[in-house]
């Protein structure tokens, strides 16, 4: 894959600053880091964003996420490895990532309401929106993920 624009970040200093501030706000929101990473990784899987998949797998592993939970994320509905809170967040992430097809159904939002207070609902929704924007930027401009050295 060839990047469409080399170092696209240098062309968006104000946008990058705004997105970084949004990410800092989400990180400080009180949502669990592991939950945020799972949501970002799942949206990135759906969007086929290799750059963000690499980033969020690396970050999740560095923060102690298990290999099996990362491997099973694509099949989270069939796996007992995720909590009810994580399941609600993942369903909401899928619904919002596939918004044109799902329309953000009330059934998925009811799951979110049962597990998250209103502030958490807003911050979770912001996190999902932010990763979808990052995915569109990286996929659209064909950003290449780092290649880890072979072991």
Provide keyphrases for this structure:
mainly alpha; globular; about 150 residues; 8 helices
Written overview of the protein:
The protein is mainly alpha-helical. It contains eight helices and no strands.
Structure summary:
66% of the residues lie in helices and 0% in strands. It is mainly α and 151 residues long.
Outline the fold blueprint.
Elements: H1 13-27, H2 33-47, H3 50-62, H4 67-72, H5 84-97, H6 99-102, H7 106-115, H8 118-140
Output the helix-strand order.
Answer: HHHHHHHH
Tell me the fraction of residues in β-strands, as a range: under 5%
The gross shape turns out to be globular
**Pairing-aware structural class of the strands and helices?**
mainly alpha
- Oligomeric state, counting identical vs distinct chains: single chain
């Amino acid at each position: 894959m060839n990047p469409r624009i080399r170092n696209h970040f240098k062309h968006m200093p104000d946008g990058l600053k705004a997105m970084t501030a949004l990410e800092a706000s989400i990180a400080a929101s009180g949502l669990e880091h592991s939950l945020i990473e799972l949501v970002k990784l799942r949206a990135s899987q759906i969007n086929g964003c290799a750059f963000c998949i690499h980033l969020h797998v690396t970050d999740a592993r560095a923060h102690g996420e298990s290999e099996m939970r990362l491997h099973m994320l694509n099949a989270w509905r069939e796996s007992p490895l995720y909590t009810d809170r994580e399941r609600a967040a993942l369903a909401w992430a899928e619904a919002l990532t596939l918004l044109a097809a799902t329309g953000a159904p009330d059934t998925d939002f009811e799951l979110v309401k049962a597990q998250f207070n209103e502030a958490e609902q807003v911050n979770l929704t912001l996190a999902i929106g932010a990763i979808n924007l990052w995915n569109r930027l990286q996929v659209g401009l064909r950003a290449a993920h780092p290649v880890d050295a072979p072991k």
